[in-house]
TrEMBL record:
The lineage of its organism: Bacteria, Bacillati, Actinomycetota, Actinomycetes, Mycobacteriales. Pfam families: DUF4303 (PF14136). This is Putative DUF4303 family protein. It comes from Corynebacterium mustelae.
Length: 186
């Protein structure tokens, strides 16, 4: 049973879906769609914000040159702060979806959290983010989205990899998910 009101979760989902559609559309318009290989959303353990980031093959190749040790390449490939573009690097109207609409819904959701229900609160928010993310992806041509790996991460958290794997399973094909799970294998 959710601890966050259904109305607030619905608002959050609408804003997340809108944010993903608009930012992914922007990234695909500004880059050759075949260049975009990763798009991620990220939050923190407290679910106090959501950001986005996308990576391109050409950017990844440039970053690999900065990190000549091949053991660092998976980090550069999958760690969203190393991605090509994201929150704060796009036109203001795109960031406003995250900084205003999504943020307002998250601020309202914070009123439902307390020490006793925190794990359920996190689950409510994470599941809402993933569900809205999936709905947004389905608004694009499957040929385009099949080339992109989608996931949700948690900033500076020991639980980041768990949420990344969980969300990748929900947002991608079984084949893409299996490959994603091996992203840090050398």
């Amino acid at each position: 049973m959710s601890v966050v009101s259904e109305e607030i979760l619905r608002k959050l989902q609408e804003q997340i879906s809108s944010g993903v559609v608009e930012t992914l559309r922007f990234v695909l318009h500004e880059n050759n769609p075949g260049e975009v290989f990763t798009y991620a959303l990220y939050t923190d353990d407290y679910c106090s914000y959501v950001g986005w980031a996308a990576n391109t093959l050409s950017h990844f190749e440039k970053k690999k040159a900065e990190f000549p040790d091949s053991r660092d390449h998976a980090f550069v490939q999958w760690y969203y702060p190393e991605f090509f573009i994201g929150t704060g690097e796009a036109p203001a109207e795109l960031d406003n979806i995250f900084n205003e609409g999504i943020q307002k819904a998250l601020d309202e959701a914070q009123g439902f959290v307390n020490e006793d229900n925190f794990p359920q609160f996190q689950s409510d928010i994470y599941d809402s983010i993933i569900g809205a993310f999936g709905a947004a992806i389905h608004q694009f041509d499957q040929e385009v989205t099949d080339a992109i790996t989608f996931f949700v991460s948690i900033a500076d958290s020991d639980d980041a990899e768990n949420l990344e794997n969980y969300s990748a399973e929900k947002l991608n094909s079984a084949e893409k998910y299996a490959a994603f799970q091996k992203r840090y294998d050398n």
